[in-house]
Amino acid sequence: MIAVTKSYLPNKEKLFRYIDQIYASCQLTNNGPLVQALEEKLAKHLEVRNLILVANGTLALQVVYKAMNLQGSVVTTPFSFPATTSSLVWEFIKPIFADIDQRSWNINPKEIEKLIQPNTSAIVATHIFSNPCEVEAIQKIAEHYHLKVIYDGAHTFGVRYQGESVLKWGDATTLSFHATKLFHTVEGGAIITNDDALAEKIRLMINFGIAGPEKIIDLGINAKLNEFQAAIGLCILDEINHINQERKKVWHCYYEELKNTCIFQMRNEFSTNNYSYFPILFENENKMKEIQKKLNDQSIFPRRYFYPSLDELPYIKQERKMMIARDVASRVLCLPLYPGLALDVIKEISHMIKNEYVLAY
Ligand SMILES: Cc1ncc(COP(=O)(O)O)c(C=O)c1O
């Protein structure tokens, strides 16, 4: 069976050496030495000022909203993983969707401004499939209306924009280190911010607001990463160059096979690609479903990332329909992409897609 992704497992001997360390110290969690080491290495690798490891990418979003005291409404994207929206609703913040750009599939800054209300406190945007949003335009709107900007950067590990980490943009960016991601800690995530005071607040918040043995100084929750997860992360980070090269190889093989046939997301020309996804857009939903079924019949399982459009979630009460997001969400399929995926499998998948495309004309 070929799934859309396959979790990367690092060198076992190295992992066991870290596990020996955990057995020796008996410290399993609570900001242990491996979590601290991983934070330091990741901040250096990603070239960011403050990086706080957390239990997952969804809690990362929730903790950021709380730390920033976001209230009222937030203008956000309808084309993302459900967590981008559910985290807001969970924190009693109203998501107001602004439709996406037809080509980049990111929130369209031109749509944001007209949706800002007196109680709007922030813009929450996703760099979808690692493609950076129009960060300058979003920043300008945020400054004009005094709004916070949070980027859901779950897909954006290692992406650079204009020669610098894209994670530096906004008041904060969140990452997901879920097992399916290109860098992972089984479950996990991180919050990135240039704001030292915010970073300090977040560090307290993810540990119940505890500042010392008998000192609780703020409202908090448990969003900590543990030592075993950090051990996996440290091992994978050591292999990140190999992972990146493998992903690049797979991505380019698909690209060469499909470039004259398929429609792709238009990527920001000033940004690098981390090759985390290979999404293709079909001419209509039926065609996409036909090809999906043909691939499934061969035990190949691409995924409909991200369907449905988030304005269609059952707990959303918004009358305005996000027509572009609904249309894109109905026609996109992400092809299997992970280190070690054999080139002949990629060619076979591509040929099946090309055959269907030919039949369509
Ligand atoms: C865009 C986006 N945001 C948030 C998340 C949630 O991350 P996690 O699964 O680590 O909670 C994901 C996970 O896939 C995602 O793709």
Topology:
Blueprint lengths: L1 E2 L8 H14 L7 H14 L3 E5 L2 H11 L5 E4 L5 H9 L3 E4 L11 H4 L7 E7 L8 H11 L2 E5 L7 E2 L2 E2 L6 E5 L12 E5 L2 H10 L4 E3 L2 E2 L10 H12 L1 H19 L20 E3 L3 H13 L2 E2 L21 H9 E3 L8 H18 L1
Parallel strand pairs: 1-14, 3-4, 3-5, 5-6, 6-9
Antiparallel strand pairs: 2-10, 7-8, 9-10, 11-12, 13-15
Helix pairs in contact: 1-8, 2-8, 3-4, 9-12, 10-12
Pyridoxal-5'-phosphate binds next to helix 3 and helix 4.
Q: What brief labels describe this structure?
A:
seven-stranded mixed sheet, 2 domains, 361 residues, two-stranded parallel ribbon, single chain, Aspartate Aminotransferase, domain 1, alpha/beta, Aspartate Aminotransferase, domain 2, globular, binds pyridoxal-5'-phosphate, 40% helix
